[in-house]
């Protein structure tokens, strides 16, 4: 497991409390400004505010590395991973579109 | 010819960031700062449930939130709202990056960072290098910051810094392009028409009240009042108010402001009411050590110690006083033990069992730390050893972090040093863990 994935898993486990009627998911953002990937832990209880906590910043700005980190993450958790700022880009390994659902805020 | 011709003329920009903290958090999440209802909420133990540090423009519009610092209980439970924790170190980093961008447009000595999200730029000598008009240059600066950092900036332009400041505070944020200009010629139209005195920089509720007492209720009144009368009432600061009403500002950004009397100190709001002597003195000790360590870092010795204690609401009501505040002249020192001893002595002298919520400890009469004044009543070797220990502890903490070497007492109930170690300005500093 990569170091980045380890850090993310560690921090995520503290926040993932499995409360009832609560949605949990991870968010990976392509940070054009800092040339890095930001990872957030989002949770939202039904009818309540969305909470978004920063987990980690992946400094290696390389898609194939990110693909590897996320591969490691997926062995640890089955939480949905949402992508932001990758529009049109493909995963170098699997050649699938990264951001399949478009966000309306960008 | 009017008086204006004798007053300094320049091209000054005051640039601030639109909802700085929340905008930074938006850009980190790949969101547009103007479109997302996002709130930065500090949830430290002493914030009584949570303190709103910043709200995005969209959140202000949707939920009618007032600008800054309100409580979590004022925040609606709405699924559209995004709540995020603060990261003070990130905001400091962004502020430095923004000022870096500004230095492309002005010389470094013409740039004055005014707060975490505001800077004053003197473009008198350089604006014509970047555009046809000051406004075009402002536009260009905005576009550069937006392109490189994703942040929106508002710009106030004026012939003097104070005109720029008023343009920024009152007009720029309401304009579609986030730019506003005030010049000497437009002062009557733009400054005298301000109905609320408290909207103006440097006029607060109390000053407005005092002005009202001599019949000044708006900026027009202030500009047309008798300056001698204002001076008699307010002293020199009154003349400054009068000058603001005319857009006059003779300050020179190049001369650095030197405080007459520097001081070093720390304060904190406690997470709950502290009632026992032991808990309160523990916190005082922790603060005293922090202050002593800062003194040593700046190579200073303090000759005066000020302790301020604020009581809890209930205790203040019962007691009739909000707290106490006392200063003590001490032999110049920056030694942990000595400062702690004096601070605790001050506290024991004045405290009468009230519940405490606020502790502040300040040192002043700072002198350069050029040597150790030996005390006649103590073994000299002991004193030298103490000084050495202080230095070693400082070095260890600097290298490995504050929490790596702490007193056992800090782990007792009531200690706050460990929990506060990674805070910046009382709020979460980094990525919680980084």
User: What is the β-strand count of chain B?
Assistant: 14
Helix content of chain A: 25-40%
Helix residue percentage of chain B: 25-40%
Spatially, the strands of the biggest sheet of chain A line up as: 3-2-1-4
Q: Which CATH first-tier class of the largest domain in chain B would you pick? A: Alpha Beta
Describe the protein.
The complex is a heterodimer of chains A (106) and B (434). In chain A, 25% of the residues lie in helices and 32% in strands. Chain A is built from 2 helices and 4 strands, in the order αβββαβ. A 4-stranded mixed beta sheet of chain A has the order 3-2-1-4, with helices on one face. In chain A, a hairpin with a 4-residue loop joins strand 2 and strand 3. In chain A, helix 1 crosses helix 2. Chain B is an alpha+beta fold and 434 residues long. In chain B, the strands form 4 sheets. A 5-stranded mixed beta sheet of chain B has the order 5-6-1-7-8. A 4-stranded antiparallel beta sheet of chain B has the order 9-12-10-11. In chain B, strands 3-2-4 form a 3-stranded mixed beta sheet. Chain B starts with 11 loop residues before the first strand and ends in a 6-residue tail after the last strand. The interface between A and B is medium-sized, with 27 and 25 residues. Strand 3 of chain A pairs parallel with strand 4 of chain B.
């Amino acid at each position: 497991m990569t170091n980045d994935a380890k850090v993310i898993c560690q921090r995520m486990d503290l926040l993932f409390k499995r409360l009832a009627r609560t949605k949990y998911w991870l968010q990976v953002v392509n940070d054009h400004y800092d040339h890095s990937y930001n990872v957030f832990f989002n949770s939202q209880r039904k009818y309540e505010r969305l909470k978004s906590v920063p987990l980690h910043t992946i400094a290696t700005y390389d898609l194939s590395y990110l693909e590897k980190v996320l591969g490691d993450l997926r062995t640890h958790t089955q939480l949905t991973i949402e992508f932001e700022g990758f529009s049109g880009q493909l995963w170098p390994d699997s050649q699938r579109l990264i951001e399949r659902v478009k966000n309306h805020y960008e | 010819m009017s008086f204006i011709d004798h007053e300094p003329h320049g091209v000054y920009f005051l640039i601030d960031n639109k909802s700085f903290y929340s905008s930074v958090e938006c850009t980190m999440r790949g969101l547009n700062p103007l479109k997302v209802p996002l709130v930065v909420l500090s949830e430290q133990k002493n914030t009584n449930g949570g303190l709103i540090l910043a709200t995005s423009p969209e959140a202000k519009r949707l939920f009618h939130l007032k600008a800054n610092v309100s409580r979590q209980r004022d925040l609606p439970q709405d699924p559209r709202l995004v709540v995020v924790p603060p990261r003070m170190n990130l905001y400091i980093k962004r502020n430095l990056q923004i000022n870096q961008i500004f230095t492309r447009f002005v010389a470094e000595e013409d740039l004055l960072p005014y707060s975490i999200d505001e800077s004053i730029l003197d473009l008198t000598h350089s604006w014509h290098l970047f555009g046809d008009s000051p406004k075009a240059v402002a536009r260009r600066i905005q576009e550069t910051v937006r392109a490189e950092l994703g942040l929106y900036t508002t710009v106030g332009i004026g012939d003097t810094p104070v005109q720029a400041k008023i343009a920024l505070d009152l007009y720029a944020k309401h304009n579609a392009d986030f730019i506003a200009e005030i010049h000497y010629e437009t002062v009557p139209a733009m400054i005298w028409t301000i109905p609320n005195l408290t909207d103006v920089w440097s006029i607060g509720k109390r000053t407005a009240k005092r002005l009202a007492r001599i019949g000044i209720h708006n900026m027009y009144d202030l500009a047309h009042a008798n300056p001698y009368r204002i001076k008699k009432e307010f002293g020199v600061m009154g003349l400054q108010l009068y000058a603001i009403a005319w857009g006059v500002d003779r300050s020179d950004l190049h001369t650095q402001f030197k405080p007459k009397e520097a001081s070093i100190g720390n304060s904190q709001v406690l997470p709950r009411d502290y009632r026992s002597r032991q808990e309160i003195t523990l916190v005082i000790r922790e603060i005293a050590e922090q202050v002593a360590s800062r003194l040593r870092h700046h190579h200073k010795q303090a000759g005066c110690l000020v302790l301020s204690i604020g009581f809890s609401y209930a205790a203040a009501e019962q007691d009739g006083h909000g707290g106490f505040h006392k200063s003590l002249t001490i032999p110049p020192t920056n030694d942990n033990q000595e400062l702690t001893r004096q601070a605790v002595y001050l506290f024991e002298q004045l405290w009468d069992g009230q519940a405490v919520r606020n502790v502040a400890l300040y040192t002043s009469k700072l002198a350069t730390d050029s040597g150790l004044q030996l005390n006649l009543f103590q073994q000299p070797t002991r004193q030298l050893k103490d000084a050495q220990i202080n230095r070693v502890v400082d070095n260890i903490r600097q290298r490995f972090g504050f929490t790596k070497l702490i007193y056992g007492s800090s782990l007792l109930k009531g200690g706050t040093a460990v929990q506060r170690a990674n805070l910046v300005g009382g709020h979460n500093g980094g990525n919680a863990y980084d």
